Amino acid sequence: MTQAIYQGFILSRQQYSSKSKRGITLCYWLVSDNGPIKVLIENQQAVFFIPQDEHNFAQSILNKENISVNFKTVEMRHFSGIVCIGCYFNDVSNLYKARTLLEKHISIYEADIRHSDRFLMERFIKGGVWVTGEVSQKNGFILISNAKLKASPEYTPTLKSLSLDIECNGEGVLFSVGLVGNGLDTVLMIGEPQQHNQPFNIDWCFDEINLLQKLQQYINNNDPDIIVGWNVIEFDFTVLNSRAEALGVTLNFGRDQQPLNIKTGHYTRLTLPGRSVIDGIDTLKNATYHFDNYSLANISYKVLGESKLIQADNRLSEIVRQFNEDKLNLAAYNRQDCILVKRIFAELQLFEFAIVRTQLTGLELERMGGSVAAFTNLYLPLLHRSGYVAPNLGDHGLSFESPGGYVMESVPGLYKNILVLDFKSLYPSIMRTFCIDPLGLIKGLDSPENAIEGFNEAVFSRNEHHLPSLIKHLTHTRQRAKDTNQPMLSQAIKIIMNSLYGVLGSKGCRFYDPRLSSSITLRGHEIMQTTRKWIETLGYEVIYGDTDSIFVKADDQLSALSCNQIGKDLTIYINNKWSFDIKDRFGLTSYLEIEFETHYSPFFMPTIRGKKTGSKKRYVGQIIKNGMPELIFKGMETVRSDWTEFAQEFQKELFKTLFNEKFEIKQLHEIISDYTKRLFAGEFDKKLIYRKKLGQNLNDYVKNVPPQVQAIKKYKASNPDFEIKRGQIIEYVYSDDGAQLYNGSNNLNYSVYIQKQLTPIAQMVLDALNLKEIEYQGAQLSFL
């Protein structure tokens, strides 16, 4: 064996105990410029912590059960001040047994952290890594034993990806599997071979076992770093694993012929040694892309302008029909889904986002959600170096709730000039300015005489803390990302910074303490209220505010140039005021920064429907972008998925007219009348479809039965074989018989759409103009 140093990026992580060797073995697979690398780190011990004064009790309990443990002094404390001791185990199963035995009697800390994660976390390894050790060349990969690892934060891998998609019936019996990418373009199809002129390969399989065996060969020969798909973990791989178990087949899809492993629980955890499996839906959501629904059909249409090859209302029935009658078209459909996923990943730069997210947080590439886990990865090693173990959920013993963001009462109406001032990353800036931090709280409570006062009896150390420095680092890194045109890095940092408050305010986080979260939100309330007061002393009216944004009315006669100058002047004034105020009151440097974000002209703030009170989180404004007017809708029907395209189009037309400089009242009458006539003439029939997700299983709807469920039950009454699952998007319309599933030829009840869609939107505008309700005359509902 030789010694060498390699640079790589972690694709998968495992831990296991070996009977032949003492201790736990950690296995990391890397992608590198030299090809795949398998890294083994042996003789490891997993650890959790207990109060030191429980040492003898724990020892006696574990001795009775013949559980081997090594107690070590660690010079670490719990937040309560209790001195802790480390409990080290050579075997993972012994750690789990010990935890189960001891947690009934004593407090145990950090027992839920896997050692394969802890090992990387404590070395600040986040994806990129230098590795050295005993090197040997294996078939298709490099093996490094007795390895030593060091962080390589700058290393960015080049990933080989393969898109996978399966087709099956409702019971999960496999029909075909599509594989596209990394030079492969094939569909594995069960059935007799058929001649075809498709521009891709079809590999015909005898049965499911033959299909699964060939699939293993294709994946191993193609040797991708990443496998992608749509709901690929929860559906595709789960179905493949289930069928393999039922048929007695082992799926050795991993590198070095390692098997696929899937564990289900609160979420499905998939391990595929040497590869990462990344789901398109989870990655979209992690990157904060927002869509009305996340089906592949919808995303491919919205992002790529392309549709799936099967667009039937009951897609599963059509897939079954094609498998029985038209396998060539099913193969084309299967392959097209693989292509759509690959193109979405490329178009939205999802691989780039996954990589930078790992580089920032240390989370696995495929990890869904994970804000709490990311916070733990970043914070825990810093906390250990300060001499503390992480607390358990609820250790603070407090039960009060911290308030949410501050939302002002709005002043409804139609305005000529509204300036929006926005605090840049308000909550992270508050945390940085006022040193709000879990360790800082403990240290502040220990020495309150020179601490920074928070809320609900919280005080924070001026010197001993970690989050302010972390936020400073993220802020500077994000600015560099913007300056060097790295949008995915900038977006990933923004998401992490915005999640810091959310994590500290989440009861699912071990660091949650209502004194922390309330010291952030209540400071935000104070900042918003004080900023409003300062603006109003200058003679301006504040008509609304929400969490970190303030809406200021400027005089109607002012030009856009003058409004922009006022916005800039206000930001300078407010930032200087906060800088002086925080220095004067607390002796601190202010990192609060308000920006002039938008000039709306005109701007509309509605009332709450049916009331005179101003609405919240709902408004419409017009901006000038690239020399052209553009409408911005927030919280209105136009941006809500539970309103029809008809209503959204009507609302846009209404406000486009209302905001025109040459607007006259009669134009509203004309638009309302025109849309009514066109509605009854059938022009909008394809835009009258409601789309709602089925939130529960069909049988769970008993007392409250919403329209989409009513529509499904009516259809199933005459079509008992119709199947639908929780989470699916339901398309329905209103007919003379109430809600019905959309079929393209429904007998529509236009009066319901007038009542439910057109009238509420029209009335909102009429109320703002202080117009009386327009009377409807005749069946056609013409307007006076």
TrEMBL record:
<dbReference type="InterPro" id="IPR006134">
    <property type="entry name" value="DNA-dir_DNA_pol_B_multi_dom"/>
</dbReference>
<dbReference type="InterPro" id="IPR017964">
    <property type="entry name" value="DNA-dir_DNA_pol_B_CS"/>
</dbReference>
<dbReference type="InterPro" id="IPR012337">
    <property type="entry name" value="RNaseH-like_sf"/>
</dbReference>
<dbReference type="InterPro" id="IPR036397">
    <property type="entry name" value="RNaseH_sf"/>
</dbReference>
<feature type="domain" description="DNA-directed DNA polymerase family B multifunctional">
    <location>
        <begin position="379"/>
        <end position="748"/>
    </location>
</feature>
<dbReference type="InterPro" id="IPR023211">
    <property type="entry name" value="DNA_pol_palm_dom_sf"/>
</dbReference>
<dbReference type="InterPro" id="IPR050240">
    <property type="entry name" value="DNA_pol_type-B"/>
</dbReference>
<dbReference type="InterPro" id="IPR042087">
    <property type="entry name" value="DNA_pol_B_thumb"/>
</dbReference>
<keyword id="KW-0239">DNA-directed DNA polymerase</keyword>
<protein>
    <recommendedName>
        <fullName>DNA polymerase</fullName>
        <ecNumber>2.7.7.7</ecNumber>
    </recommendedName>
</protein>
<dbReference type="InterPro" id="IPR006172">
    <property type="entry name" value="DNA-dir_DNA_pol_B"/>
</dbReference>
<feature type="domain" description="DNA-directed DNA polymerase family B exonuclease">
    <location>
        <begin position="107"/>
        <end position="299"/>
    </location>
</feature>
<dbReference type="Pfam" id="PF03104">
    <property type="entry name" value="DNA_pol_B_exo1"/>
</dbReference>
<keyword id="KW-0235">DNA replication</keyword>
<keyword id="KW-0808">Transferase</keyword>
<dbReference type="InterPro" id="IPR043502">
    <property type="entry name" value="DNA/RNA_pol_sf"/>
</dbReference>
<dbReference type="Pfam" id="PF00136">
    <property type="entry name" value="DNA_pol_B"/>
</dbReference>
<dbReference type="InterPro" id="IPR006133">
    <property type="entry name" value="DNA-dir_DNA_pol_B_exonuc"/>
</dbReference>
<comment type="similarity">
    <text>Belongs to the DNA polymerase type-B family.</text>
</comment>
<keyword id="KW-0548">Nucleotidyltransferase</keyword>
<keyword id="KW-0238">DNA-binding</keyword>
